[in-house]
Amino acid sequence: MDSILNPSTLKNLVFDLGDVIIPIDLTAPVRNFAMLANLPEDEVWAIWKEHNFINHYETGLLDDAAFRAEVRQLLKNDVWADEVIDTAWNTVLLDLPVERIARIQELKANHRLFLLSNTSPIHIRRVNDVLTQLNLPTLEQLFERVFYSYEVRLAKPSPDIYRHVLTEAGLVAEETAFFDDNAANIQAAAELGIQAVHVQPPMTIIDYVKDL
What we know:
- The chain is of the alpha/beta class.
- The protein has two domains: 12-24 and 94-208, HAD superfamily/HAD-like (Rossmann fold), CATH 3.40.50.1000; 28-92, DNA polymerase, domain 1 (Orthogonal Bundle).
- Helices cover 47% and strands 11% of the residues.
- It has helices spanning 28-37, 41-51, 53-58, 64-74, 82-89, 98-107, 121-133, 139-142, 149-152, 159-169, 183-190, 205-208; strands at residues 12-15, 112-117, 145-148, 176-180, 195-198.
- It has a five-stranded parallel β-sheet with strand order 3-2-1-4-5.
- The radius of gyration is 18 Å and the shape is globular.
- The protein starts with 11 loop residues before the first strand and ends with a helix.
- The model has no long low-confidence stretch (mean pLDDT 96).
């Protein structure tokens, strides 16, 4: 469900992170943990779905240590170092297209910019490390406010997380655009009156904001 952007009323831009700013491969962590544990990938997928601990991690019910402990317990390997787990978990993140960061920086001149992501602390630290290595601003520097699911203890597509962003940042829904790659997330935002845009390949976020 897409909304046609109305630049004349648009004051605020809210961006998702994964597959909007940075490309991701949601299957990569499962492949890597399966290889580390010497298990079939479908068995690791089944464990992930049965226990739902990733959702608990991304909504702040588990901290980093508890997340890693859960991985060790479920995959029956209590000797993996934190770095091993973090590295496998971060394989979801692909190479960062720096031109997307440059375009977002340009948009700052005429819009208030925000980030809204279902994510985890391990992923955010890694993204910020990559940005710093490229001499680019961190996410917290790039945006006026960042809203991470694990901090607000809410996750898309719950309407409550969009209401939280609008209230906390003092935004009017009709003056706000939201860019996300997930159709359910887009529909939930649109139902609140937000100008919601479904980012879909082969187009990238640069294509969607070129006229702003």
